[in-house]
Each structure stands twice: as C-alpha cells, then as structure tokens.
Amino acid sequence: MLPWFPPFQTLTSGRGSSGLAGAAGGWGLDPKDSKPDTPGPANWNVDVFVQVIRDLAPHLNWREVVSELDHPGFSILSKAGLRILVQGLFRGLQDVFPVDQIYKPWKNSEGQVTVSAMAVIELELCQ
Asked: Please, how many CA atoms are within 13 Å of residue 118, restricted to the half-sphere of its CB?
C-alpha cells in the first residue's frame, strides 16, 4: 500500500497488523525506564494515532488487528502498554470488542497470558 513507509505496510499486511503495537509503543514499556517529563510512547495521543491510521487505511480490518496480536514477541508488560492497546483498539473497532480473539488458543501463549494477566490486574482499563 505504502511501499515507501515499511512500518505502515507491515501494519496493513495481516500478520504484521499488530505493528500497531510497535508503532504506538508501550507494550513492553518497563515502568522503571519511564520518566514523566520525557516524551515517548506512554504520552502518545491514541485518538490522533487511530485517526491517522483510519485516514491512511480506511479499509483496515480492526478485528484482524486484534487477531494478529498473536505473534512471536508480542507481550503486554505494563499498565501503559495495556492502556495504549485497549484505547487504540476500542477507538479503531468502534464496535463490540472481539473477546473471542483474545481467548481463542494462541500460538504465542506467553503473549496471550501477558494480555490476560494485565487485563485482570488493570481491570478498570478494560471496561
């Protein structure tokens, strides 16, 4: 779609659509490494990010984005990462969250456990 911008091409290519995670950052953000005054992934405006994705890829299947979180290396290690993920997906989906994609068997079972564990720990973010 946009060959001159490989991260976006990855985002819209199916398996790589979880590149949303890498683009928005914060999935593996270690709270010890975060400094409140330092701009970075935890400070992104998720609404603007999702709107840009919608403008550039209006036919992006957000349900597919959720299913493609199941890939090697994906994990949620912090509240900030979960917040960015949940906010971005809820805004992108604009519909009922496809919980079945989170609770089906994943190939990356460790990633699935990190998502589920953080969702339980930070329940208020997922409501």
From this structure: 22
Distance of alpha carbon 26 from alpha carbon 42, whole angstroms: 6
Residue 84 token pair: 């960015």
* Nearest partner of 13 among 83, 85, 78, 61, judged by Cα: 61
Measured in whole angstroms, the distance separating CA 84 from the mean position of its chain's CA atoms is: 7
pTM, to two decimals = 0.69
AA identity, residue 122: E
> Chain centroid to CA 23: how far?
9
Q: Are 101 and 64 in contact (CB under 8 A)?
A: no
Helix (H) or strand (E) holding 96: none
Rounded Cα gap, residues 123 and 74, in angstroms: 20
Which residue reads 């190939």 in tokens?
107
37-57 pLDDT tens trace: 444 555 678 899 899 999 999
CB 45 within 8 A of CB 51: no
Q: How far apart are alpha carbons 111 and 91 in whole angstroms?
A: 22
